[in-house]
Amino acid sequence: LCQQRYKIVVSTYRCDAKSAFRVFLKENPSIRAVFVGVRRSDPFCENLELIQETDNGWPNFVRVQPILNWSYSDVWNYLIRNDVPYCSLYDKGYTSLGDANSTTPNPLLKNNDSSYRPAYCLQ
Fold first, then answer.
1. Residue 119 near residue 106 (C-beta atoms within 8 A)
2. How far apart are CA 97 and CA 21, in angstroms?
3. What does pTM read for this prediction?
4. Angle at the Cα of 82 (from 78 to 88), degrees rounded to 5?
5. Angstrom distances, CA of residue 21 to CA of 26, 68, 77
6. Residue 16 pLDDT more than 80?
7. In 64-88, which positions are buried (b, 16+ CB within 10 angstroms) versus exposed (e)?
8. Torsional class of 26: left (φ above 0), alpha (ψ -120 to 50), beta (otherwise)
9. Of 47-51, 83-87, 95-99, which range is least confident?
10. What is the DSSP string of the chain?
């Protein structure tokens, strides 16, 4: 859906992020910058800048982090207001998606009947 809506090409790699960027940049040598959807409150992001080169040990490109200073609610307000599609797991109480074996719904969103409120309800 996002591919059609925004006219983008999605590339999928089954490896760690550093390796994936190495392969992607080798396949796409004209790419010099990558948009990254991190926020300052995300782990290891507190000292990032809006635009910066990658760290040592990473493939060389410029990271552009346009939502770095957004809050959690800023992200959800934007997604809902602009009808941006998102993963349906967020509607089932997940607030962070990672490894399929260890990612669980956020306990702060649990209802009395053991169901979960959507991620955008988290304050």
1. yes
2. 20
3. 0.77
4. 80
5. 8, 20, 30
6. yes
7. ebebbebeeeebbeeeeeeeeeeee
8. alpha
9. 95-99
10. -HHHHHT------SS-HHHHHHHHHHH-TT--EEE----TTSTT-TT--SEEEPPTTS-S-EEE-TTTT--HHHHHHHHHHTT----GGGGGT-S----TTT----GGGB-TTS-B--GGG--
Location of structure tokens 């960027």? 21
Q: Please check the confidence at residue 22 and state whether its pLDDT lies above 80.
A: yes
Using the predicted structure, report yes or no on whether residue 49 has a pLDDT greater than 90.
Answer: yes
pLDDT tens per residue, range 80-92: 999 998 999 999 9
Amino acid found at 56: N
Structural contact between residues 118 and 111, judged by C-beta atoms closer than 8 angstroms: no
Quote the pLDDT of residue 6.
86
